[in-house]
Write a structure and sequence with these properties.
Blueprint (H helix, E strand, L loop, with lengths): L1 H5 L6 E5 L14 E4 L5 H11 L4 E7 H7 L4 H7 L4 E6 L34 H8 L3 E5 L4 H13 L4 E6 L9 H4 L3 E3 L9 H8 L5 E8 L5 H7 L2 H13 L2
């Protein structure tokens, strides 16, 4: 739905996935796809963006893929600001391997390997994304599919690193539908998405879960920076890129 909204053709899109319930996403689209290693969505997506600037690059990852084994890549993608959209499905569990705690599993939640309850405090993906300095942060919920599709389209259209945090219930191992659905509210037009303080107020809310564009900032991408650098520096960068091909 997001691709259709933006008028994107299949041959102009590449979807990059890692390991987890989301891993087979590229196989379900008639676009280019790259099913990569666990936690390595962002390095692959950034490499494609560097060398194939004409492609729309969309990364797909779960909360474990993105913020456990792949967590070290997120702050560096945020500071580099490559022109890619990174959709993180957060179900608070390792669903593919049958229900072990993930980085976002709530404290005290009982699983097969934590029968007395999870002893670790969860991380908050939206808060981390803001702290890392992403230039676009969106949060969505699959119970509002049209809203989520439009949010993904906005993230793709954003020039820079767009992280879209999707609160995604796992019906088998961590069914949060009844918990989240009543708390979800769409962010109103009065919200200034360029106001970082306002963004922090949204993600710190406990009574409700605001969904929509939480933060959006215009910042140079690596490609735009390259276009403004002196000719000799651009030559050096081009030679460096060739060495990786």
């Amino acid at each position: 739905m997001a691709f259709h909204e933006l008028g994107l053709k299949n041959e102009n899109v590449i979807i990059v996935s890692g390991i987890g319930c989301n891993g087979r996403f590229p196989h379900n689209f008639r676009t280019y796809g790259f099913h990569t290693l666990h936690g390595r969505v962002l390095p692959i997506a950034q490499g494609i963006n560097m060398t194939r600037s004409g492609l729309c690059v969309v990364g797909i990852a779960g909360d474990g893929d993105a913020f456990a084994i792949g967590g070290g890549h997120v702050p560096h993608a945020a500071r580099r600001n490559p022109d890619i959209a990174y959709i993180v499905f957060d179900n608070g569990i390792y669903g593919q391997t049958k229900g072990q705690p993930s980085p976002t599993t709530p404290f005290g939640y009982k699983t097969k390997v934590t029968p007395d309850g999870n002893s670790e405090n969860p991380i908050d993906i939206s808060k981390l994304a803001l702290a890392y300095g992403v230039s676009f942060l969106g949060r969505g919920f699959p119970g509002r599919p049209n809203h989520l599709a439009h949010l993904i389209a906005q993230g793709i259209a954003h020039k820079g690193f767009a992280l879209i945090h999707v609160l995604n219930p796992c019906p088998t191992f961590h069914d949060t539908w009844k918990e989240w659905a009543p708390k979800v509210i769409e962010i109103g037009s009065e919200h200034d998405s360029a106001d970082l303080d306002a963004a922090w107020r949204l993600v710190r809310r406990q009574d409700k879960i605001p969904i929509g564009v939480i933060f959006k900032q215009k910042r140079s991408t690596p490609a735009e920076f390259k276009a403004t650098t002196p000719t000799d520096t651009k030559t050096e960068m081009n030679e460096l890129l060739k060495s990786f091909r």
